[in-house]
Prior knowledge:
The chain is α/β, with parallel strands linked by helices.
Amino acid sequence: xxxxxxxxxxxxxxxxxxxxxxxxxxxxxxxxxxxxxxxxxxxxxxxxxxxxxxxxxxxxxxxxxxxxxxxxxxxxxxxxxxxxxxxxxxxxxxxxxxxxxxxxxxxxxxxxxxxxxxxxxxxxxxxxxxxxxxxxxxxxxxxxxxxxxxxxxxxxxxxxxxxxxxxxxxxxxxxxxxxxxxxxxxxxxxxxxxxxxxxxxxxxxxxxxxxxxxxxxxxxxxxxxxxxxxxxxxxxxxxxxxxxxxxxxxxxxxxxxxxxxxxxxxxxxxxxxxxxxxxxxxxxxxxxxxxxxxxxxxxxxxxxxxxxxxxxxxxxxxxxxxxxxxxxxxxxxxxxxxxxxxxxxxxxxxxxxxxxxxxxxxxxxxxxxxxxxxxxxxxxxxxxxxxxxxxxxxxxxxxxxxxxxxxxxxxxxxxxxxxx
Length: 420
């Protein structure tokens, strides 16, 4: 690896070169120079008008391997992540079988070394993510699981939640929960409100999210430990977590890119590609989520990448599966937010913050640092179609649409890829 990037603008609040247009020389996986000088290299990238940051990291993605590889596997998921600008991804344990044994964790870790994007397994909290019996979390930690979660399934059993908070303190482990009282959301397919009434669809109330967050915060205060709320979606959730942080509780949270961009009114056409869980909420909630990011109440932005085959999506809306394949469209979606959320705000939520939450090594765009980088052009146009799609699935509301904002290259230690 001997690469020279000319006239790239650095977007990294932790770098001494933040917001500066410079030349960058990368050699043998290290940044060896950042200046205005020319450096001989095997590969030269003309980066004028482009931005470069530390490599992006996604805390919530489904790669469906093993079990339903026809929707996604580790290889296609890693390719989609790389195309989307991610040098690291933490994957959900909701596979078949569930990631809940040392062998399943080691399977993911062994495969990760072969991809440009690093893949980190998160292991289940309860057996088969049913919420009834705990997994061997300490052994799974030793095998390489970086966090513990039942993924898209909430930890509904209060005693299991309490015991998990206690056990994980032995290893300073992170417990991740997607807050949802499923007895309140059963058979629901979208946000409960005026739009669901008009469409004649059973709603999923925001109360289902708030109740579980309140429960978990009470348990956290009682037992200690730390908890991360995954995929929050409401104004009230932001308020509850903000108050908990002020009280000194070890709590963090993330929001999906879909909830920052879309609202329940986007479902008026019954497009099942917008059907996700938690569901798209109101614009009032959406604006509160953006404010939560700006105030550092929300710590990370995730793709919530959930690939589905056509048989799971091309159905009546209430019968279709939840999920959007979101890895490749993170950048153009963020850029659509424009003045509401500028790059200086969201870049931290895609790079340093998620790695710190998961206790993974961080880097910065500076001399002698490891080259873990994402280069992107905010004005480049492209179309998500069968030619550009790296995922095995096509369940995206942006499919066959012209998009603005494209990742041009990623660098991960001794590996790199340039995208045309």
